[in-house]
Design brief:
The protein has five helices and seven strands; from the N terminus they run E-H-H-E-E-E-E-E-E-H-H-H. With about 180 residues, it is of the alpha+beta class. It has a seven-stranded antiparallel β-sheet with strand order 1-7-6-5-4-3-2. Helix 2 crosses helix 4 and helix 2 packs parallel to helix 5.
Length: about 180
């Protein structure tokens, strides 16, 4: 399965990069995300509750960021499994390019391989779920960025940068996984 696209984010590139690396923001934006735990060296452990069609499950997984070119791009490698639903593994390349002082274009290309019950329910259903998850993630993520930009536009100082700027594209991966496995 492959998922790719572009989204305009309502923030400059540095702000978008910082938000993509903020674990708390990502937990709020990824549907079904229960936790993201840093393991060190750009590695994370995650837990998601999700559903695709009749398959509902809790997925435990690991993420690793590679090829980091802050604040421009990185590759996210992921794997997740559920005892009753199967597994997914793959990677996603995320790029950020500044459109102007208030907008950044986020591009992504993700590929994944699924097995178990997930593979049995059919690629159309899995693809549709992945697309819906990505849409929900980007809607929530855009709202978070817009809320961060509002104080700046009103003349207030910008919010402090997030404490963990090394996290990265986790949100896209989670959105991809969420679309892959849930609503």
């Amino acid at each position: 399965m492959e998922l790719k696209g572009e989204r305009l984010l309502p923030a400059d590139r540095a702000t978008a990069w910082a938000a993509l690396n903020d674990i708390e923001i990502l937990k709020q934006c990824v549907p079904g995300c229960e936790e993201i735990v840093p393991l060190g060296d750009n590695r994370y452990e995650t837990t998601l509750n999700t559903a695709i069609g009749p398959v509902r499950a809790k997925f435990k997984g690991k993420l690793e960021l590679a090829d980091i070119d802050a604040p421009n791009a990185y590759t996210l490698k992921f794997e997740g499994s559920s005892s009753n639903a199967g597994f997914a593994r793959g990677e996603a390349r995320v790029t950020l390019s500044e459109v102007d002082a208030r907008e950044t274009k986020l591009g992504f290309v993700a590929s994944a391989h699924v097995g178990g019950k997930l593979a049995q329910i059919g690629s159309r259903l899995v693809d549709a779920a992945a697309g819906a998850m990505a849409d929900k993630f980007f809607e929530a993520f855009g709202a978070q960025l817009a809320a961060r930009a509002a104080p700046v536009e009103a003349g207030a100082p910008p919010p402090a940068p997030p404490p963990q700027a090394s996290f990265g594209f986790w949100s896209l991966l989670k959105a991809f996984l969420k679309r892959l496995f849930g609503r």
